[in-house]
Amino acid sequence: ALDAPPPEWTAAPEKSHADGLYNEASDADYEAAEQFCSDHPPDPPRLLPSHTIDRIAAVGCAAWGLDWPNNKRFVGRISNSSEAKGGQAVTRVETEDACGDTCLLSDFPITAGLYDTRGKAGVYFEVTIDWMDANGVIAVGTSSRPYPSWRLPGWNRLSAGLHLDDCRKFFEDPDGGRDYTPLLAPGQVRPGDVVGCGLVFPTSTSTSLSSDAGPRTSAIFYTYNGMRLPDAFKGVYLPRGAHDVYAAIGVSGRTALSVNFGGETFRWKEGNEWAWRVEGHVGQLAAGPSADEELPTYSQAR
């Protein structure tokens, strides 16, 4: 089997706070998000269109960017590398004071359930903080689709987030989150800092990357200015083949940031290895007699 048997997900051991340290969403937003998730079940994993696979093959990680949110609360600008002139290698986001809570999702999944992960450790991306106002919030994480666009990552179904104002971590946690690590204290993140997010793929013993490694479950971890921090969550997005997972960037208030999917060198050095590249597993069959067999195109699969 490609994936380890999925254990039942359990909450992180840290105490869950009832309220946010600095900011709180309204009860109306919470109730609307719960209704949204009830009305819209998670999308199943899908084959990527053939033109998307061709683009990834041609430009690699530069194919990834952020979708414009279906959310009138978003007041700002998004400039993807594919849209920018002058060879911009990252996606840039700027928001204004009037910007409300918004979750921006990557246009393509960073891990797609129907594609193979053998030989890969996981996927990784980084966010550089250019500005975060005293009343602003930036959050870095992951999510499946659909996700309520007026909620920050980690607050609702199948979503994780590290909120950089109070440095608490969230996974499907609509309350105040959980303390993450003393290596990242509330108020510590400053302009120029780089926060990375990694999703570790699960393996069985036979598919571990090193001969002396045993099976591992999935995990989400973060990095801070090139230093890998402890795993934030384990046993998430399992079974792996059941989910397409997207990068998720939360913004509120006046902020400026850039998202690096690999177009520029990562601060976390290990992330520059092929085993962590976001484009590394797309286009390879997830199961079957030949691990190297390419997936059929979208038109062929319909």
TrEMBL record:
This one is known as SPRY domain-containing protein
Q: Name one Pfam family in it.
A: SPRY
Domain SPRY as annotated: residue spans: 120-265
Q: In which organism is this protein found?
A: Punctularia strigosozonata (strain HHB-11173)
Transmembrane region positions?
none
Residue numbers spanned by region Disordered:
1-24
- This protein's source sits in the domain of life called Eukaryota
